[in-house]
Specification:
The complex is a heterodimer of chains A (223) and B (234). Chain A is an all-alpha fold. Helix content of chain A is 84%, strand content 0%. In chain B, strand 8, helix 6 and strand 9 form a beta-alpha-beta unit. At the A-B interface, helix 1 and helix 5 of A face helix 2 and helix 3 of B.
Chain lengths: 223, 234
């Protein structure tokens, strides 16, 4: 393994080890996702793909995922700043390895969240997916976009005093395009359409956010 | 007034130490110089044109009351803060001056605001940073033994003196040529201070350099070469 990859892996492994001990992000993500899922399922009941279900449910699924992720993912950076461990990290790791290590951690958390929430959501509202692979591709690509955008926004917000407010303000313009694309893709997957054009747009969004994040991160992370 | 005390046992005090040339046996493995370093935080001017230098085997002593800018100066030297004006030149083994990004990764830094991961054990903390710094995993264990720190105890469960020792272990992990020490003996008992002073002496004897900041008088061992005493006004 190259030195760079080994450093990324070290940051990723450290974040998981810390998370396994504190369970701060896991608890936040899990509790938020489960409570909103229960609310949605109790409020709506089994809607199915007929009626308005196919129109409304993709939005609800992604709103649950988005808010759960944004409640838990920023912790990776905020915790480093609040506990002053960011200084040690700044003095020991290259910014690019910190960025990709944190992004890998956020991505694994997001995908784990999706693996928990999506099947539960489909079961609770009795929704069938006509194009499962397109649905999974939407979850994977949408999860990457969510993790990459959250990582960059959290890195910026963690430097500020009003972290929560700044995170919400910055998230709005960056995550709305992602949400619109991924809902469109999920809606198409429910109807049995792979929607390759939307998937391509989503992948372009993912690439753009990841590349912009990697380029901006050294300036955000260091003076 | 802050001062340097040389030879604590003898009690000999010198309020100011003149610059001492580098020892001839230590080639220019490392050199640090800074001129006219200025730094403001909003309207507050913390550093107003500070200069100093240290070569291989030498200590640069920085003293001054609380709020005089000692920590800010050391952060600027470490590359953690960008000065508003002034030049910082840190060279290693005759290299070109290091950039701020390079300085960050090269220096050893001990400061009160430096913290390690409380949920990880001392050994896990050093192992993580050893992987980042690409040094053998055994180095962390050696330092923990030298500093008499328990390997399996969570960093968050350490006493303040043990935390300070862990900061020293973290700072020495990659065998830096330049040590930046902000109140490095804080919270240490007599035995602990003796150990870290011995580690510092070994670092200097090996051709390393150090910048040491203290709010009050600094007790300087007889075998330390004090390059300069920078006294910051409050």
């Amino acid at each position: 393994m190259s030195n760079w990859l080994a450093e990324v892996a070290a940051v990723f492994a450290k974040d998981w080890k810390s998370e396994a001990r504190t369970r701060y992000a896991l608890n936040t993500l899990g509790l938020f996702a489960l409570s909103t899922l229960v609310l949605v399922s109790v409020g709506l009941g089994p809607m199915g793909v007929d009626a308005a279900g196919a129109e409304v449910l993709p939005f609800l699924l992604w709103i649950v995922l988005l808010f759960a992720a944004t409640a838990g993912l920023p912790r990776a950076f905020v915790h480093e700043e609040e506990t002053h461990t960011a200084i040690a990290l700044r003095l020991a790791a290259r910014p690019s390895t910190v960025f990709w290590g944190k992004l890998s951690f956020a991505l694994s958390l997001t995908w784990a969240l999706e693996a928990l929430v999506a099947p539960l959501f489909l079961a609770l509202v009795q929704l069938e997916v006509a194009a499962p692979w397109a649905f999974v591709a939407g979850l994977a690509a949408g999860g990457f976009g969510l993790a990459a955008a959250s990582t960059v926004i959290a890195a910026i917000a963690a430097q500020a005093r009003g972290r929560s407010t700044l995170f919400a303000v910055l998230s709005f313009p960056i995550l709305i395009p992602l949400l619109l694309l991924v809902v469109e893709l999920t809606r198409a997957a429910l109807a049995g359409d792979a929607a390759p054009m939307v998937l391509r747009q989503l992948l372009l969004y993912d690439g753009a956010v990841a590349v912009a994040g990697a380029m901006l991160f050294p300036a955000i992370w260091n003076p | 007034m802050p001062s340097i005390r040389r030879g604590a046992a003898v009690g000999f005090r010198r309020p100011y130490n003149p610059p001492v040339p580098p020892a001839p046996s230590t080639a220019p493995m490392v050199s640090l110089s800074f001129t006219g370093v200025r730094r403001r935080f909003g309207r507050l001017s913390v550093l107003a044109g500070v200069s100093g230098a240290a070569g291989a085997g030498q200590v640069l002593v920085v003293t001054g009351p609380n709020g005089s800018g000692k920590s800010t100066l050391l952060r600027c030297l470490a590359g953690l803060l960008a000065p508003d004006a002034g030049e910082i030149e840190h060279r290693e083994a005759g290299s070109e001056p290091l950039t701020a990004a390079e300085r960050r990764l090269r220096v050893g830094y001990v400061a009160p605001d430096l913290a390690l991961y409380e949920e990880l054990s001392t050994a896990e903390n050093l192992d993580f940073f050893a992987r980042l710094r690409r040094v053998p995993a055994t180095r962390g264990g050696e330092l923990l033994d030298l500093l008499s720190l328990p390997r399996g105890r969570a960093a968050g469960a350490l006493s303040s003196g043990m935390r300070q020792k862990l900061r020293w272990a973290w700072a020495l992990l990659h065998r830096p040529r330049l040590l930046l020490l902000d109140e490095p003996f804080q919270n240490l008992d007599t035995g602990g201070e003796a150990v870290v002073r011995a580690l510092l002496a070994e670092h200097l004897a090996g051709g390393g350099a150090a910048a040491l900041a203290q709010p009050v008088e600094v007790t300087v061992a007889d075998d330390w070469q004090v390059a300069e005493h920078v006294e910051l006004a409050g």
